[in-house]
């Protein structure tokens, strides 16, 4: 540290560029000295991409089903066979009493019970009407309703097969086309989200903590007493994190393109421009936090709680914004990641051009200007 | 014991001297419980749809009205051609396009069947899938009502076959959450998230901040034992965790009417054992970190991974085997499962005792590790 400061004193003060380079060098020394942090920062996007790509999906699988048939017959046996063959279901066999069914559900060991009334087959053949009850454990509503949908489809299809090949008249067939994501891979949804999350977390926390650390340690005082211009100092503080964020951007794009097969349909240049804008925004946010907070621990708390959680919840990364109640939809308007993720999806997945994303870019620019204004107004050269 | 008392006094004083932390402990649970449950829903509603009606006939108009009346869809526009509709989709103004062909009515009367085509924006795969399922459902309902109206146009033999076809009613009972409300499912999860964020991040930043300010060296030269030092670090966060859980449980009851069927004791018992393990994890990270930046990134990294691999947002059963193994070695998984069972399934303490045992095991291992990994060296 001391030699770096000495170095700054030796150079002519009018040469801002040289100062800047020296200062950036100092920042890089700090970063490279701490291998572990560097590893986490560069490894985080890789792990996230791999987790979202290979470990996490919303698909409902392994639905544990049991049958309850007081009077077993060919129909219920046929259903049991169909369920056993279906890859979504995990057939648990027949249960002897309804009590047993209820108990397994309470213990969380059973997702779905298909309940036939006594003398089901007799009623079905004699009166032409039968009733089947599906009981699903819907603590998880998604799982509950999807289990019911699958089971209903299996039972009705089996019944149709039994009824013989009479075509039902007046049907409307629908031809479905899945636009942009024909195989419906969840990676198309997640990759832009991960970009929004990782770039923000890293730039914001790194910048704010590294500035506040200098304040806490008192080295900031030394820097402020030096002939270094404050603007130069702040620019120099952010450059290393800008470079690290760019490295992360590259690793995310490479992994998603080559490993997850996510296309980049739009212009790569536009995508880079968009990401740069977002990285600038995250860096500015880090600067703003560093002027509002005086302790490293508080900087981490503010960045982690105000960045990580809102980005996860309110940016449309996992949960679509138009499902939210209006109040939250308005709240999401101030989450920068929302605009960034939206724009990345448009460029990367939908292949749209700048005419479709200029609004998002304008909003992000506006946010940067706002954050920088707050930072400048709040910055005091004097230390308390 | 006396040493521990004084150390605890110091820790609590330090915690309250920081203006942000006491506020965080109260405000954060309130914010999370008030706001986030509303943000999360896989129930796809309000899908914006454009209907391109080339037929402009009575049936096609009825179909359009039926789609518009469904609570899943919002009729965004009825453009004259597909290109305009597609343009709307590109602009992000509509999610789905239903195209009704010119011959829709004619086919229906003449051939007794007809076809429509739909195009869904499937960047969000779930939305794409559910949207097309809902449309199919609407088509089935519409064709069933047409069948009733047009039955008399059928030849007598097929009419008889239709009437005598056996009817099978499938009734679905949604147990534990009859309104299929996603909030009920997520709220126990948010309780776990809150405890993890606060009782995981804060301890991780605690010891390392003593390292940075240098006060840890002063402790190291005193005869304070390793275990009382670490315990004094942990106990305040256990108290904080219990306060947070109490706030969350109260809010869940007051705002959402959620209360565990078997009473509050199993919830707190599971929660406390979980707090032990997660704060132990925080201290371990703190012990191994040299500075705040390192500690904060390590803890964020671990928390993100354990949240994603816990089954809180996505089902564990759909993960590949290796990820399921990671989920099985994750305290978050067990508490999320337990709290959901207690809150929704009406499970008893006996039903969740397996999970509780696992949490206890994690607590022992992690806290033991936390004490052992603390070195009394500078």
What does this protein look like?
The complex is a heterodimer of chains A (384) and B (378). Chain A has 384 residues and is α/β, with parallel strands linked by helices. In chain A, 67% of the residues lie in helices and 9% in strands. Chain A has a four-stranded mixed beta sheet with strand order 2-1-3-4, sandwiched between helices. In chain A, helix 4 links the parallel strand 1 and strand 2. In chain A, helix 4 packs across helix 7, helix 8 (187-217) runs parallel beside helix 11 and helix 11 packs antiparallel against helix 14. Chain A starts with a helix and ends in a 6-residue tail after the last helix. The model of chain A is unreliable at 1-9 (pLDDT under 50). Chain B is of the alpha/beta class. Helices cover 67% and strands 9% of the residues of chain B. Chain B has helices spanning 2-17, 20-39, 58-69, 82-90, 104-110, 125-150, 156-164, 182-213, 215-220, 226-256, 265-288, 292-308, 321-328, 331-345, 353-373, and strands at 47-53, 73-77, 96-100, 113-121, 167-175. In chain B, strands 2-1-3-4 form a four-stranded mixed beta sheet, sandwiched between helices. In chain B, strand 1 (47-53), helix 3 and strand 2 form a beta-alpha-beta unit. In chain B, helix 2 (20-39) crosses helix 10 (226-256), helix 8 runs antiparallel to helix 12 (292-308) and helix 11 packs parallel to helix 15. The longest helix of chain B is centred in the middle third of the chain and has 32 residues, at 182-213. The radius of gyration of chain B is 29 Å and the shape is elongated. The model of chain B has no long low-confidence stretch (mean pLDDT 86).
């Amino acid at each position: 540290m001391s030699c770096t400061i000495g170095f700054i004193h030796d150079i002519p003060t009018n040469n801002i560029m040289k100062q800047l380079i020296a200062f950036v060098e100092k920042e890089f020394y700090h970063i490279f000295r701490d291998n572990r942090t560097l590893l986490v920062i560069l490894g985080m996007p890789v792990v996230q991409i791999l987790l979202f790509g290979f470990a996490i999906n919303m698909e409902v699988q392994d639905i544990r089903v049991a049958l309850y048939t007081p009077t077993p017959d060919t129909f219920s046996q046929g259903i049991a066979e169909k369920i056993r063959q279906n890859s979504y279901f995990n057939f648990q066999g027949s249960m002897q009493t309804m009590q047993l069914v209820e108990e397994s559900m309470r213990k969380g060991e059973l997702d779905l019970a298909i309940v036939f009334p006594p003398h089901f087959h007799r009623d079905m053949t004699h009166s032409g009407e039968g009733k089947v009850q599906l009981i699903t454990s819907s603590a998880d509503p998604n799982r509950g309703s999807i289990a019911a949908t699958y089971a209903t489809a299996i039972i009705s299809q089996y019944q149709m097969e039994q009824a013989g090949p009479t075509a039902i008249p007046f049907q409307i067939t629908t031809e479905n086309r899945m636009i942009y994501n024909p195989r419906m891979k969840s990676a198309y949804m997640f990759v832009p989200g991960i970009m929004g999350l990782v770039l923000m977390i890293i730039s914001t926390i790194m910048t704010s903590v590294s500035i506040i650390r200098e304040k806490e340690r008192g080295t900031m005082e030394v820097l402020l007493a030096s002939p270094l211009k404050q603007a130069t100092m702040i620019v120099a503080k952010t450059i290393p994190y800008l470079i690290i964020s760019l490295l992360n951007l590259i690793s995310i794009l490479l992994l998603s393109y080559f490993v997850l097969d996510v296309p980049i349909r739009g212009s790569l240049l536009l995508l880079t421009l968009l990401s740069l804008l977002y990285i600038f925004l995250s860096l500015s946010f880090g600067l703003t936090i560093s002027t509002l907070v005086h302790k490293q621990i508080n900087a981490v708390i503010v960045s982690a709680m105000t960045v990580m959680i809102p980005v996860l919840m309110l940016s449309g990364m996992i949960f679509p914004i138009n499902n939210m109640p209006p109040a939250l939809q308005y709240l999401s308007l101030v989450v920068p990641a929302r605009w960034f993720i939206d724009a990345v999806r448009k460029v990367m997945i939908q292949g749209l051009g700048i005419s479709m994303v200029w609004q998002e870019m304008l909003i992000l620019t506006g946010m940067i200007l706002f954050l920088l204004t707050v930072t400048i107004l709040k910055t005091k050269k004097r230390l308390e | 014991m006396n040493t521990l008392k004084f150390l605890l006094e110091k820790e609590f004083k330090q915690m309250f001297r920081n203006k942000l932390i006491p506020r965080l402990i109260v405000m954060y649970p309130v914010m999370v419980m008030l706001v986030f449950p509303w943000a999360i829903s896989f129930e796809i509603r309000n899908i914006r749809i454009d209907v391109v009606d080339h037929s402009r006939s009575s049936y096609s108009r009825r179909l359009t009205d039926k789609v518009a009346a469904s609570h899943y869809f919002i009729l965004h526009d009825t453009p004259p051609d597909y290109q305009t509709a597609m343009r709307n989709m590109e602009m992000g103004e509509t999610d789905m396009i239903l195209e009704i062909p010119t011959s829709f009515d004619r086919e229906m009367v003449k051939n007794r069947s007809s076809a429509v085509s739909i195009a869904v924006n499937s960047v969000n795969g779930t939305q794409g899938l559910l949207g097309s399922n809902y449309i199919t459902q609407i088509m089935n309902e519409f064709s069933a009502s047409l069948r009733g109206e047009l039955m008399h146009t059928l030849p007598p033999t097929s009419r008889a076959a239709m009437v005598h076809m056996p009817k099978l009613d499938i009734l679905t009972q949604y147990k534990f959450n009859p309104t299929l409300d996603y909030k009920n499912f997520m709220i126990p999860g948010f309780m776990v998230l809150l405890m993890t964020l606060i009782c995981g991040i804060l301890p991780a930043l605690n010891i390392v901040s003593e390292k940075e300010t240098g006060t840890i060296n002063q402790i190291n030269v005193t005869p304070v034992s390793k275990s009382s030092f670490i315990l004094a670090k942990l106990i305040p966060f256990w108290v904080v965790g219990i306060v947070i859980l109490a706030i969350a449980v109260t809010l869940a009851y007051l705002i959402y009417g959620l209360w565990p069927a078997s009473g509050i004791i199993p919830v707190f018992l599971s929660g406390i054992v979980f707090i032990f393990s997660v704060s132990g994890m925080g201290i371990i990270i703190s012990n191994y970190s040299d500075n705040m930046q390192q500690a904060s990134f390590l803890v964020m990294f671990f928390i993100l991974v354990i949240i994603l691999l816990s089954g809180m947002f996505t089902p564990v059963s759909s993960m590949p085997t290796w990820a399921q193994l990671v989920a099985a070695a994750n305290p978050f998984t067990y508490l999320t499962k337990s709290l959901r069972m207690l809150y929704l399934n009406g499970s008893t303490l006996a039903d969740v005792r397996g999970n509780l045992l696992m949490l206890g095991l994690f607590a022992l291992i992690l806290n033991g590790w936390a004490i052992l990994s603390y070195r009394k060296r500078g």
